Amino acid sequence: MEMITRKVSGVDLVFDAPPSKSYTHRAFIAASLAEGESCIKNPLVSGDTEVTIRALGQMGVHAGHEGDNVRITGCASGPRCLPGQVIDMQNSGTSMRLLLSVALLCQNPVVLTGSPRMKERPIGPLVDALNRLGGRIEYLEKTGFPPVKTGGRLKGGTTVIDGTVSSQFISSVLMAAPCIDDDITLILECEPASRSYLDITCDVIEFFGGIVEREGYTRFHVRCNGRYRARDYPVEGDYSSASYFFAIAAIAGGSVTVRNLNPCSTQGDMAFLAALKGMGCTVCMGPSSVTVERSGDLDGIGVNMSSSPDTVQTLCMVAACARTPTTIRGISHLKFKESDRIRITAEGLRSLGADVEISDDEITIRPSPLHGGSIDPHDDHRTAMSFAVLGTATGTVRVLDAGCVNKSFPGFWDSLKREGLV
């Protein structure tokens, strides 16, 4: 499957943001560990979130789709894993990381595995922390990477955890912590990657009755007397996915409104809007929508996007259309995503005429004439969607393997088709 985007200008469009992937994963897990039945309202149904719900099912959790909702009967006494069970996380890094700690709540060992790319995505800092907290996790192939076999049981205590590669290592322990009989304290000695996702994690834990005490992003303490309780939980719209629509306004000029967004969200990818504003766009926040407009020139900026990793590629596409250079910093952890996003983004932009320079932790994009071409997203959903958006400036950007967007945003191409953009 491939899709070709076309050049447009002066747009006036309205889109609906899909539900948040990050909130959906975490709500599924909290509800699964709660006592009673929860209703997750309007969760994201995508490749990644279905991996999580299937994996929880293999751990003894009963969940079923009811229209736009998912009902989950929690197992407050702990997940029930069969001896020798193998759980395939496919290409969902979020599922692998968040559920590894949950697997230590099972009575029996399980094997967590995934796709070839998953076996290249580091998990060592999380395994180290869990083994200090009672786990006996073993690597089955390459040290520091999946697949792994669980062993031992998660216990309370205090440990240092390294979140510089991924904040999901920290979120994983935090999500499982309310289900054990002792408090857990995590000490972060270095600034975590994508730290805003820790705010999302704490938000969901507390909504379902957990108790998290924290000192910024340096210390997290989860109380054992704050057990999860069943709740009806509405999933808010996703700013990561909305960024592609906002970028169309910035690139093509005109106005784009995206509905189903919480203006008071803790999602770090809201920072994308501040970046667009700095480049010359106007941003208007409504009660449940956001409008981005551009009528003048786009100017480059210098910005740190370490807490907004999922919108870095989208911002790169906007930067390629600006009249002055842009430098985006704080991106070293992007090389460990579904693809090496730093390298793949640079190569793709250069193939379309962009002037790009990269280092380990930053990317600089300078003004240069652009043209259409073909983009291989390397099975990375965000690469596919980002370059599709750039096609509204250049015309004729052919995105190969376009179906990979189903990982996070199955309705993406349909949204563009309705507006005649593909």
Structure, described:
The protein has 422 residues and is of the alpha/beta class. The chain folds into 2 domains: 3-18 and 237-418, Alpha-beta prism (UDP-n-acetylglucosamine1-carboxyvinyl-transferase, Chain), CATH 3.65.10.10; 21-228, UDP-n-acetylglucosamine1-carboxyvinyl-transferase, Chain (Alpha-beta prism). Helices cover 30% and strands 22% of the residues. It is built from 12 helices and 23 strands. It has helices spanning 21-32, 47-58, 93-103, 124-132, 168-176, 196-207, 239-252, 271-278, 312-319, 341-351, 381-394, 412-418; strands at 3-5, 11-16, 37-41, 62-66, 69-73, 85-88, 110-113, 138-139, 148-149, 157-160, 184-187, 212-215, 219-222, 232-234, 254-259, 282-285, 289-294, 302-304, 326-329, 355-358, 362-366, 373-375, 397-399. Strands 2-15-17-16 form a 4-stranded mixed beta sheet, with helices on one face. Strands 4-5-3-14 form a 4-stranded mixed beta sheet, with helices on one face. The protein has a 4-stranded mixed beta sheet with strand order 6-7-9-8, covered by helices on one side. Helix 2 packs parallel to helix 3, helix 7 packs parallel to helix 11 (381-394) and helix 9 (312-319) runs parallel beside helix 11. The mean pLDDT is 96.
Descriptive terms for the model:
globular, single chain, four-stranded mixed β-sheet, UDP-n-acetylglucosamine1-carboxyvinyl-transferase, Chain, 422 residues, 22% strand, 12 helices, 23 strands, 2 domains, alpha/beta
CATH superfamily of the largest domain: Enolpyruvate transferase domain
User: Beta-strand level of the residues, as a percent range?
Assistant: 15-25%
Shape by Cα distribution: globular
The domain tally reads 2
Structural class: alpha/beta
Question: Termini separation (Å)?
Answer: 13 Å
Strand order of the largest sheet: 2-15-17-16
Rounded to an integer in angstroms, the radius of gyration calculated over CA atoms is 21 Å
CATH topology of the largest domain: UDP-n-acetylglucosamine1-carboxyvinyl-transferase, Chain
Proportion in helices: 25-40%
By CATH reckoning, the class of the largest domain would read Alpha Beta
CATH architecture tag of the largest domain: Alpha-beta prism
**Tally of DSSP helical segments:** 12
* Parts with pLDDT < 50 across at least 5 consecutive residues: none
The overall strand count is: 23
What is the overall pLDDT average?
A: 96
Major beta-sheet overview: 4 strands, mixed
